[in-house]
Specification:
5% strand, 11 helices, 4-stranded mixed beta sheet
Length: 306
């Protein structure tokens, strides 16, 4: 009896279910960000005149879309430049090219441009606004320390980000987060400039409560939506892990690569591109709501159950 209990089978996870569940969770989290924006807008409309409310909303939307548009259409150039990447060589990095070509052939994806970034640590990222403009970048350490199966697991993960249009999805998330942050900033600055109090007719106490609610929401909403944005980012990592297993049919490749990453030292990269990487480049010991990636141990455990 005890032997039977100790050898009980681990509950298996279908990578199809894993992909579907995490995609649904990502969409739900996006809905939460939209809800915050609507709630903030509603409170602003109660505090200010309707005309002023529309001005705030329009400005926040234009500014958010404007700066995110530039980042979106230049995402590959910005990310590659920030890490000092250089184009991979078909001769010096032959296995790198062969692995990507084989995976793209199996998945029907166009072959992305391939780059290498300096560094002894194991890591990689994908970027680009669409399939035709996609890039994959791996560290020099990945090329030296990973065997063929491990490298294919890493590359399949990055190709999954491309196939799932994760850059586009996260750009949309960034637009929504930016809209909330800008609207909150304008509202708070209006308070300091004495712009409040022009809303619908209310007694002094009611208006004071609305002002207090508006100020609290303007302070907390940007923090809350940033937490939700990072939660979306973590869910997309689980989707890419599961999709990588679907592509390679060999979870041990990615499992072994992630296990090797656990022993690496932190990387020195720009914080703005940290969320793009296969794993947290800063190797933060404590995982919290502001983490860009799920814990490596959790990802490995989920992969082992597939």
């Amino acid at each position: 009896m005890f032997l039977f209990d100790s050898m009980a089978e681990i509950t298996r996870i279908s990578f199809h279910d894993q992909i579907q569940k995490n995609k649904i969770k990502s969409i739900v989290l996006m809905g939460i960000i939209i809800a915050f924006f609507i709630l903030l807008g509603y409170v602003i409309s109660l505090v200010f005149d309707q005309s002023y409310f529309f001005i705030i909303m329009i400005i926040s939307i234009i500014f958010s879309i404007g700066y995110t548009y530039y980042g979106y259409y230049n995402s590959d150039k910005i990310s590659l430049r920030s890490v000092g990447a250089y184009p991979a060589s078909p001769t010096a990095h032959r296995q790198y090219f062969h692995s990507v070509e084989g995976l793209c052939l199996a998945s029907g994806l166009p072959i992305p441009r391939l780059f290498v970034m300096p560094g002894e640590q194991i890591n990689a990222f994908a970027s680009g606004r669409d399939l035709k403009n996609a890039v994959i970048c791996v560290t020099e350490g990945s090329l030296r320390k990973l065997n063929k199966q491990e490298m294919e697991g890493v590359l399949a993960h990055e190709l999954s980000h491309i196939a799932n249009y994760d850059i586009r999805f996260m750009t949309l998330t960034a637009v929504l987060v930016g809209m909330v942050a800008i609207a909150a900033e304008i509202f708070l600055r209006s308070m300091w400039l004495g712009g409040g109090g022009g809303g619908r007719n209310r007694n002094g106490r009611g208006q004071a409560v609305l002002l207090l609610l508006g100020i609290l929401l303007s302070i907390l909403a940007p923090i809350a939506v940033k937490i939700v944005q990072l939660a979306v980012s973590r869910k997309r990592e689980y989707v890419a892990d599961a999709h990588a297993v679907k592509l390679t049919r060999y979870p041990d490749g990615l499992i072994n690569a992630l296990s090797k990453i656990k022993d690496d030292k932190p990387m020195k990269v720009n914080k703005a591109v940290a969320s793009l990487f296969l794993s947290d480049p800063f190797k933060r010991k404590v995982q919290n709501l502001f983490s860009t990636h799920p814990p490596l141990e959790t990802r490995i455990e989920v992969l082992r159950r597939m």
